Amino acid sequence: MNAGQVQQFSSAPQAVGARNKYRDPNDTGKAHGNIMYDRRVVRGNTYAAVVQPEPDMAEVQKQREAQRRRLHRANQTKKRPGTPEAVPGRKHMDIQTDSYLEKLTDRVVEFEAETQTDFILDRPPSPLFMPAKIGIDIETQIEDGELFDFDVECEPVLEVLVGKTLEQSMMEVLEEEELASLQRHQEDFEKRRNAELLEVQRMEAAEKRRADEVQRRVAQQAARHEQDICTMRKVLARQIASEHLQGLKGRLLQNLEDAGVFADVGSMAVETKFMPGLLQAVVQQIQNSTQEHALADAVISSSVDSKLQKHSAVLEIERRRLALIDEAERQAREEKQE
Question: Where is the composition biased (Basic residues) (predicted)?
Fold first, then answer.
């Protein structure tokens, strides 16, 4: 550029984007790093033939994808959120917020300078740039309440946030209490149901035992009654047989005598001498047998009567016990239902 020429700014002015005041220490500096590591910079003898390495297809595809994403992001217009409208009676103005004000001009001051440093000396560190203070300081007076009051403006927001937080917390606590109450109610219901099932099983077992006992007693009583009937039949048959045999000998002898069997001397001797003693002995034996049968009948009758009385007493006691058990179970069921 010649000294007589003036540099002109041809691009349209635009707002400066937001950036950090200091450099990010985590920045690797690949975008603005050392150019000696850039593949596009040729190092060494420029007259020699430069051997271009064969590009990797995967790397080329990755670069193309990155370039297409950059173009896509560049084409997308990002609208910056605008500044809210000014309050009535005021207007917005562009001001500088730097520590030192600078005078903005359309023409940039240019000059050329040359210098030569010693070959052995190291490059000194760059001095800290301190722009000269130019322009005129202007101040203004801001009354109370004209600017944004954080305590007043954030109070409704804080009230809404705190209220919603407390409401949500109360709802969660109420839900937890309701779940705990449902759990307790379910546990109580399970306990009552298990207790009722145990009681029902116990009553069923008792009823089954009582039915089995009743069937056993009925079978035992039927067997005993059958045995008593057999005994009575045997006694009656023996008594009938003894009564039938009592007159059989006399009738037989009378029939034989009528038939003329005992008409000889021997028979006469028997009739006159032997038969009276025999008859007397038979009568005595019959009487003794009758007495024995009567005594046996009396003993059997008394034994049967005593057994029947004992059995009747036992049955009456069992009936009373079963009645008491039924009455107690009925009262227990009524008390449980109440």
Answer: 69-81
